[in-house]
Amino acid sequence: MNGLHVSGLSVTLGGNRILSDVSFDVEPGHVVGLIGANGAGKSTALKAVLGIVAPEAGDIRVGEQDVVDLSPRERAKKLSYVPQGAPVHWPLTAERLVGLGRTPHLTPWQDVTDADQAMIRCVMQETDCWHLRDRLVTTLSGGERSRVLLARTMAVGAPFMLADEPTSSLDPLHQLQVMDIMRGQAACGAGVLVVLHDLSFALRYCDRLVLLHQGGVLASGSPAEVLTDANLETAFQVKVARWTEGGEQFLAPHAANGG
Questions:
Q1: CB-based contact 250:244 (threshold 8 Å)
Q2: Which PROSITE patterns does the record cross-reference, listed alphabetically (predicted)?
């Protein structure tokens, strides 16, 4: 399958223009980070790709297929989604919730197969939540629930994964594990589009970045090309300290006015 291509995306919600002429590509095997200040339109861009919000203009394609021409079932097979802080109201066990990720591949009333069950266990182990399998999701902490929802998304086995701030509410160890999982999904051939606020994660884990500012694309390219001092001060009103440790690059922001 070819890449996920977004061209000329514009979205207006409640009479407010949220995105204007936004374009980017997500190729198989790559992690693409969507970054920008609060209100820049990152989550809206993901929801437009998924069909959760209707674009005012633009073209969104998976390979040669326009996503608007895909049935909900086919779209679910191609584009999996990790929502930001999604509430869970049903008293399902964690294992059962992860199993819902296999739904696009099942016929109505079909139960999961042995192969489906093996995949469910695999992704729950990879996201460090297999030990939670018999717990009701409504009793889990925010971080535990986030890992279960990530496992559900991985269980779909879609060629493209979209994740909206998947490290929020997680402790530092599990933040690193989640970002390693994103890279692992790409290493297995998936295209990953992830909304991030942590600029150090964006630098270290992403192949390409799209920096949104006031609803448009301020910069797009490699992390080195996008995370320049000028771009960061324009988009975030911050300066950054940079250093290298163990062969990896890091950056830490501080207020541009010295505060």
A1: yes
A2: ABC_TRANSPORTER_1, ABC_TRANSPORTER_2
Using the 8-state DSSP alphabet, how is residue 136 labeled? B
Q: What are phi and psi of 73, to 5 degrees?
A: -65, -45
Residue 67: burial class (beta carbons within 10 Å; 0-12, 13-18, 19+) = buried
- d(CA 209, CA 205) in angstroms, rounded, equals 10
Whole-prediction pTM: 0.91
Q: Which tokens belong to 65?
A: 């297929």
Please check whether residue 242 is in contact with residue 218, taking contact to mean a CB–CB distance below 8 angstroms. Answer: no
Which single residue is written with the structure tokens 């489906």? 116
pLDDT at position 258 is 58
Beta bridge partners of 93: 136
Question: What angle do the packed helices 142-156 and 172-187 form, to 10 degrees?
Answer: 10
Domains of the chain (ranges; CATH) run: 4-255 (3.40.50.300)
Burial of 4 (0-12, 13-18, 19+ CB in 10 A): buried
**H or E segment to which residue 98 belongs:** helix 94-99
Query: What does the pLDDT look like over 116-125, one tens digit per residue?
Result: 999 999 999 9
DSSP 8-state class, residue 197: -
249 burial class (0-12, 13-18, 19+ CB within 10 angstroms)? Answer: middle
| Whole-number Å distance between alpha carbons of 181 and 189 | 13
Contact 52, 133 (CB under 8 A): no
Please state, in angstroms and rounded to a whole number, the distance separating the CA atoms of residues 218 and 211.
6
Length of the chain: 259
Q: According to the model, what pLDDT value does residue 163 have?
A: 94
Q: Report the pLDDT value the prediction gives residue 86, as an integer from 0 to 100.
A: 66
